[in-house]
Amino acid sequence: MKAQLLGLFLIGGLTYTVSAQENLKYQLPPQSIVDLVDAPSNPVIQFNKTGSIMLILQSPGFASIEDISQPVIGVAGLKVTPNNNSTAAEVSGVYESLIIKDVKTGKESRLSGLPAKYRITNISWSPDGNYIAFSNNDLKGVELWVADIKSLKATKLSNDLLNDAVGTTLQWHPDGKHILAQFISPSRGTKPEEPMVPTGPVIQENLGVVTPSRTYQYLLKNAYDEQLMDYYLTSQLKSVDLEGNAVNIATPQIYRAASYSPNGKYLMVQTVQKPYSYLVPINYFPLNTDVLDASGKLVKALYRAPLADKLPTGFDVVATGPRNYEWRADAPETLVWAEAQDEGNPKNNVPFRDALFALKAPFDQQPQKLFAMATRFGGVEWGNASYAIVKERWRKDRTSKMTLINPETGKVLKAMPTTSSENAYIDPGRFVHAKAANGDNMLVFDKGSQPTVYTIGTGASPQGDRPFVMKWNLISNKQDTLFKSKAPFYEEPIYFDKSGSLFISRESTAETPNVYAINLNTKKEQKVTNFADPYPSLKGVQKSLLSYPRKDGVKLSATLYLPKDYKKEDGPLPVLIWAYPREFKSLSAAGEVKGSPYRFTRLAFRSPVFWVTRGYAVLDNADMPIVGVGKNEPNDTFLEQIEDNATSLIDYIVNMGVADRNRIAVGGHSYGAFMTANLLAHTKLFAAGIARSGAYNRTLTPFGFQGEERTYWQAPEVYNRMAPFNYADKIKTPLLMTHGIDDDNSGTFPIQSERLYSAVKGHGGTVRLVMLPKEFHGYRSRESVLHTFWEQDSWLEKYVKNKK
Fold it and tell me: Of 164, 230, 743, 793, which is the active-site residue?
């Protein structure tokens, strides 16, 4: 009798505690893994603009299966939770605990007025730093709240509910006395009812126009979906003061963006328009860009962007016409934007790809062409009336460039050399910013006649990452390192002002991250927080950063974890290797050391480190570079390179004496799962494989995938050769596959795993497929994560540790 897809459906050919035709309830892995899954995450820190107050925010653990089973609907590429009109995703930027700490006195306080249970999102500091605005994401609705930092009182500002599905949910007016928020339109009525009887077919048509598109999930499918889109995404903008008095701004629309000018006089809004598309997500829909006054009255209709569903393929492709509208952060009321000079098509041979334009209030003159660039616009770092940095990049050859200009005249003051965007060793880091009144970022300058800025970088080096703070004269190019992380710690700058006050997060392999205040002038330091170790059971686990060569000379790296008290005399261990392939255009960039040997271990559902508690040697973030130099593309030799990468690592750890060559498993998530299936199909290096939420048939992603720009019809031999589905008859090494039933990631639809499972099974392979109800590309519920780990542990114990 055929099994029914009820609850958690397991398919497989091995002898577990149940047969392949039974439904299985959620299982628990060994307690050592359960304890680590349930451990609290390390707190998140946010500072006010002066560094005198810090917020200590605690993220919730994994949700329950009941919580993630709330209804979710797909709307134009978005996942919307209809119960509270918010987006449904992996837990990120959601906090269940908030502590306010006075840095000088060390006093920690909690806000009064909050409900007993809350889920804080969308935290935003007021311009003066005296308040925070935030939303409380309740399962029945998203509420607007504000907290007075001095009185420590939190207040719900409105009984009306926010629309948290798309756009900017809330932001401060530059006066610091009002909050602009998106509310559910009070006039939207009841949810549209889906017609029981169709009125006709759904038709799509293309009349000879080239319209390639990558694979997307949750697209609109019919007229009813369009009604749902209007219902759930339409918002009413309101300006709400600190007493809760609200005024409507403009009319209900679908707002993709809304932002105040730095002086608060104008509001730039972008609204989604019809016709909607069934081929592409909302980001490609027609978009109106307008300038309103602060009350919502139209001042200037800037641009009417058409539906962009006919763009050519390629990472350097952009739409024609104005794009990337933003306010010039250092000026009171000047708009800037980029515009393609090559029709948005990188195949067109022109001297300039993009140009930067500016338009000052009252927006009734011709735009000023500020700067033309040879490659694609990558943003602007605004400083003052004399200095701004224009960034550009070109994905095809992985190059980037910065140019110092006068933002008033566009005059080039310093053209900095073009560099490789892949070369982390020379990355100057991110610029240190101050906040403009409207929340936009502005460069922080040191005193002096020449523009001297500050940057904070990762500090990638042959010794591993060593984060730094640097002072950089943009004219002379003189660079002074003010701070650099020192072994045996990983010290990451998290707040800096040019007075010399620096806050860092310091950690080591044995010490959990904590915040320290450092005075760069006196070199004095003070410990600010005292967070406890969330993983006491990992104390004594041996961690090291390995560096080893590939046969062509490329240096590879991986982080090795060995069980506590392990000694080489104990003999070689079973091994779990976890990896994710990455494309490069140069051998030198591929060989750069990545990560740090001094970081505290952080665990997430993607981590393999849990199995060090089960007696395995674990290799995490094992390098899997795929390099294509010059005209050669990385994927032309994908299979050869992943085999070389894996062989080099295995040889190295076996020669170290810690690994049993016959008891090695490989695993990965998403593209790492794709890599895993290929390694099992084309090599005999492994005892077992674990592939989670992958894509295996490249004909199902014919217009590009991952870093591949070519289409299936341009490079059919590459697509066919890279697809493990085409070699399913060769997969005889035991393969465990898991997949979220509601996976929404582009290209990794659940059918990818279902079809590979059927193909391997049909050729007599040892394979097991676990489909997780209500899970997306990343698994969110405690039940699903723990069951996935039970599956993985059972698989590793049977086919690796106790391999016969």
Answer: 743
